[in-house]
């Protein structure tokens, strides 16, 4: 029932679909933390940041901090599918991270160069390509 909104890459707002209301500054970061990507999985909010310690943060849907993991890469945009976190790694690769085992899987070729934004939904990998001015989709099995 929630939509989480990256506001200015510094704060997270939560929109409640049932109440038709926005909770501003649901999660606030300091000026030194920059949000690089967010997604939800198994009733948790995952937030990729550029913090020097704990780049991947997990929160409950109520905004309670669960834990943090260090990511050794400066990547952006994330999406989660079947327990695998997909991370855009410029210019043309996608890193994959198994959330259950907390291990990196082999990187895969991205369907675009310098893509913006990624999402997996109903078996398709969606991506934005600002240079070509399009939103594209590819069956997830085609890129894996």
Summarize the structure in words:
The longest helix has 4 residues, at 140-143. The mean pLDDT is 90. Strand 2 and strand 3 form a beta hairpin. It is built from one helix and 14 strands; from the N terminus they run ββββββββββββββα. It has 144 residues and is an all-beta fold.
Overview features:
single chain, 144 residues, mainly beta, four-stranded antiparallel β-sheet, 1 helix, 14 strands
Can you summarize this structure?
The chain has 144 residues and is an all-beta fold.
Compute the average pLDDT.
90
The poorly predicted ranges are none
Helical content (DSSP H or I, runs of 4+): under 10%
Total DSSP E strands: 14
How far apart lie the N and C ends? 31 Å
Structural class: mainly beta
- The total count of helices amounts to 1
Described by the principal axes of the CA atoms, the overall outline is globular
Write down the secondary-structure element order: EEEEEEEEEEEEEEH
The major pleated sheet works out as: 4 strands, antiparallel
């Amino acid at each position: 029932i929630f939509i989480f909104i990256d506001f200015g890459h510094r704060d997270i707002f939560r929109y409640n679909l049932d109440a038709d209301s926005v909770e501003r500054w649901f999660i606030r970061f300091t000026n030194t933390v920059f949000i690089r990507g967010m997604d939800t999985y198994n009733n948790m909010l995952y937030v990729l940041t550029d913090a020097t310690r704990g780049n991947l943060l997990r929160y409950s849907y109520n905004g309670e901090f669960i834990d943090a993991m260090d990511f050794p890469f400066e990547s952006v945009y994330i999406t989660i599918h079947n327990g695998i976190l997909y991370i855009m790694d410029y210019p043309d690769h996608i890193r994959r991270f198994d959330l259950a085992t907390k291990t990196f899987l082999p990187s895969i070729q991205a369907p675009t160069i310098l893509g913006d934004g990624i999402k997996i939904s109903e078996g398709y990998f969606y991506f934005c390509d600002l240079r070509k001015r399009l939103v594209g989709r590819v069956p997830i099995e085609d890129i894996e």
